[in-house]
């Protein structure tokens, strides 16, 4: 018996998403296939944002529709143009409606097979072709996570490239910055309307001890401070040294026991080679900094040693020293944490780790797999920005070589050291806070907002996981999921068991934690360490990227002039400002956390879970805004509308 199927085809709402090519469709059901049917109606088809309706006739009832084939072929004399298909919807004669989420570019003349949208795990071998061909790895540098084997963004698949709108905005932004850094002076004076700390505020308060300490809680690197219960043996600080920085009638030992003493240890910088900038060798140090949380709620530095080896040529600097000695010591700590932040906290812990998450997803999880559907929105544009970075920032003579004391060689050395010590706990916020002894600390808004968001993501992931995994055995026996986790363990952590990263997942709880970590890293963690870079770094003395003189070995010799001779020169400063401005300014075409305009899940149950997640994010946003109204220095970086879904800049 002949059957009539009504078809709706949606073209992506992007500039250049439409096509003049001939588009045909074949329906594949459990009982057979329809004839290949050209999708053509009066007027122009497949314009950007358009949803077009067609009819497909079949001589038989095809049964449940499992898949559609989209055939893109040459039309008349028109040149080939790529086409972005959002989805296909099929209404069967019996009344059932099947939705086929696509959200892909069809490039050249090809046939694309799109699976019906219900999440399914594990997917049958029949669907293995949905894995991305060409998503292959390469070693970019020894000791780095492996990355996509593509050298420039022009060679990326259009699915992975910036949209025309975003790419244009980014190029205009970059051109304006390079052309005499136009636009930056305005930001330097006034700051953006959606930032927590304006560069102008930083330029006024950068040398204050309280603001120095504040930045290790709520600045661009809020993840390296830890509670100190015992002074390190290589940091010979005594009570007599710091007594004037503590309250009366207390001692350093008592404050250690009370948990009010904190430590920043830059030991990982030991042995990192420095580069030459403008012909002059720069200098890198590995300081230790002791801080005290005062009864007033301020985090203030109380002792600084500029090397890891104590001795006559490595004195402990104190707030009671001369103004310029103490200022110079703090500058060295800020410079050291600049390197740790940019290379490890930012580049390694978000961009490079996320790229392996992404590639493993494309290679091991077919589009119909629920974990693929869950994660793919959080990988948007990551490959584009990472490939762009490797081709521009890291290239010989790129901004890294022009702006940072490490240069690319030192950066590569530091990053490999960082990966060899990176642990699963580092990327799991509750574990990280516990290991650093910071579960409870007033005024630590990164922790306060981050934990709310971790728990919201965890609840969201748990809801999705329980829809598709009814028992722990379902997790353990999902070969695609296990291959995905194993590939991440291999390509990112090189089977290093000390990393604590799992090689397999055995329970729903383990799966929930792992997926929460992935989404949190792509979005929240990246926003927390990325979005404030220009805000805190536009005033160079607050965030120096290089030091032209070695760290002082003797107290009492620092002067205003010697500090100026130590800080970066004008050329290096301008290149650093350019780097920070480009890295922290999100171009157009944003998708905030929890924004899922591409409906990869088609069933009602996951849609309800997504809606609950979005409602919780809205509630968290209101709580953050209410709290910020009471703060002299608001913390906006983890407000959900200001957090990008993915690591995309």
What's the domain count?
Answer: 2
Helix content: 25-40%
Please report the number of helical segments.
21
How far is the first residue's CA from the last residue's CA? Answer: 55 Å
Largest sheet: 5 strands, antiparallel
Number of DSSP strand runs: 18
Average the pLDDT over all residues and give the rounded result. 93
Question: Under CATH, the topology of the largest domain is which?
Answer: Lipoxygenase-1, domain 5
Gyration radius, rounded: 27 Å
General form: elongated
| CATH second-level architecture of the largest domain | Up-down Bundle
Low-confidence stretches: 124-130, 185-195
Supply the helix-strand structural class.
alpha+beta
CATH homology superfamily of the largest domain: Lipoxygenase-1, Domain 5
Tell me the strand percentage band.
5-15%
Please give the CATH class of the largest domain. Mainly Alpha
Write up this protein.
With about 650 residues, this protein is of the alpha+beta class. It folds into two domains: about 5-115, Lipoxygenase-1; about 160-640, Lipoxygenase-1, Domain 5 (Lipoxygenase-1, domain 5). The chain has helices spanning about 165-180, 185-190, 200-205, 210-220, 240, 250-260, 325-365, 370-375, 380-390, 400-405, 405-420, 425, 430-435, 445-470, 470-475, 480-490, 510-530, 535, 560-565, 570-585, 605-630, and strands at about 5-10, 20-30, 30-35, 35-40, 50-60, 65-75, 85-90, 95-105, 110-115, 135-140, 145-150, 225, 260-265, 275, 280, 290-295, 300-305, 315. Strands 2, 3, 4, 6 and 9 form a five-stranded antiparallel sheet that branches. A five-stranded antiparallel sheet has the order 12-13-16-17-18. The chain has a four-stranded antiparallel sheet with strand order 5-1-7-8, with no helix packed on it. A hairpin with a 2-residue loop joins strand 2 and strand 3 (about 30-35). The longest helix has about 40 residues, at about 325-365. The chain is elongated, with a radius of gyration of 27 Å. Mean pLDDT is about 95; it is low at about 125-130 and about 185-195. This is Arachidonate epidermal lipoxygenase 3. GO terms for molecular function: iron ion binding; oxidoreductase activity, acting on single donors with incorporation of molecular oxygen, incorporation of two atoms of oxygen. Its main location: cytoplasm. InterPro entries: LipOase, LipOase_C, LipOase_C_sf, LipOase_CS, LipOase_Fe_BS, LipOase_mml, PLAT/LH2_dom, PLAT/LH2_dom_sf.
């Amino acid at each position: 018996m002949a059957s009539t199927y009504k078809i709706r085809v949606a073209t992506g709402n992007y500039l250049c998403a439409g096509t003049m090519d001939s588009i045909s469709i074949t329906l594949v059901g459990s009982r057979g296939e329809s004839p290949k049917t050209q999708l053509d109606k009066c007027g122009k088809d497949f314009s950007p944002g358009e949803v077009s309706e067609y009819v497909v006739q079949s001589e038989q009832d095809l049964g449940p529709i499992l898949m559609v084939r989209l055939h893109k072929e040459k039309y008349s004399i028109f040149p080939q143009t790529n086409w972005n298909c959002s989805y296909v919807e099929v209404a069967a004669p019996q009344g059932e409606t099947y939705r086929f989420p696509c959200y892909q570019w069809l490039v050249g003349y090809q046939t694309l097979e799109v699976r019906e949208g219900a999440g399914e795990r594990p997917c049958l071998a029949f669907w293995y072709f949905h894995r991305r061909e060409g998503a292959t790895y390469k070693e970019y540098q020894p000791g780095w996570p492996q990355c996509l084997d593509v050298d420039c963004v022009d060679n990326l698949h259009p699915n992975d490239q910036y949209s025309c709108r975003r790419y244009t905005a980014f190029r205009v932004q970059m051109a304006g910055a390079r052309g005499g850094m136009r636009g930056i002076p305005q930001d330097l004076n006034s700051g953006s309307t959606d930032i927590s700390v304006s560069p102008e505020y930083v330029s006024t308060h950068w040398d204050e001890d309280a603001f120095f300490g504040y930045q290790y809680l709520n600045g661009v690197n809020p993840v390296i401070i830890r509670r100190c219960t015992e002074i390190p043996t290589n940091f010979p600080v005594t009570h007599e040294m710091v007594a004037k920085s503590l309250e009366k009638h207390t001692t350093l030992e008592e404050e250690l026991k009370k948990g009010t003493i904190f430590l920043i240890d830059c030991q990982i910088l030991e042995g990192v080679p420095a580069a030459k900038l403008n012909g002059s060798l720069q200098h890198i140090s590995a300081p230790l900094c002791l801080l005290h949380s005062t009864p007033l709620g301020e985090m203030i530095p109380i002792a600084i040693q500029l090397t890891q080896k104590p001795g006559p040529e490595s004195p402990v600097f104190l707030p009671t020293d001369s103004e310029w000695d103490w200022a110079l010591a703090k500058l060295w700590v800020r410079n050291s944490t600049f390197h740790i932040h940019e290379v490890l906290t930012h580049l390694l812990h978000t961009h490079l780790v996320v790229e392996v998450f992404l590639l493993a997803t494309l290679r091991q999880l077919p589009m119909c797999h629920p974990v693929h559907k869950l994660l793919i929105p959080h990988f948007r544009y990551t490959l584009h920005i990472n490939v762009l970075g490797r081709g521009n920032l890291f290239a010989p003579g790129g901004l890294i070589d022009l702006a940072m004391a490490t240069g690319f060689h030192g950066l590569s050395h530091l990053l490999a050291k960082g990966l060899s010590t990176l642990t699963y706990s580092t990327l799991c916020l509750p574990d990280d806070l516990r290991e650093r002894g910071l579960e409870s600390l007033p005024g630590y808004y990164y922790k306060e907002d981050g934990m709310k968001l971790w728990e919201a993501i965890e609840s969201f992931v748990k809801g999705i996981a329980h829809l598709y995994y009814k028992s722990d055995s379902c997790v353990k026996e999902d070969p695609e999921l296990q291959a995905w986790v194993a590939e991440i363990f291999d390509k990112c952590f090189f089977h290093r068991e000390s990393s604590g990263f799992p090689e397999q997942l055995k329970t729903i709880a383990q799966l929930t934690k792992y997926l929460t970590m992935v989404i949190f890293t792509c979005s929240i963690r990246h926003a927390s360490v990325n979005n404030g870079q220009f805000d805190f770094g536009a005033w160079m003395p607050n965030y120096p990227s290089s030091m032209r003189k070695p760290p002082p070995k003797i107290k009492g010799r620092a002067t205003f002039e010697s500090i100026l001779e130590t800080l970066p020169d004008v050329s290096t400063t301008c290149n650093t400002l350019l780097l920070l401005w480009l890295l922290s300014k999100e171009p157009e075409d944003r998708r905030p956390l929890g924004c899922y305009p591409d409906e990869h899940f088609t069933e009602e149950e996951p849609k309800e879970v997504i809606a609950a997640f979005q409602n919780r994010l809205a509630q968290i946003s209101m709580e953050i805004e209410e709290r910020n109204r009471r703060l002299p220095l608001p913390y906006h970086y983890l407000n959900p509308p200001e957090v990008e879904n993915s690591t995309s800049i």
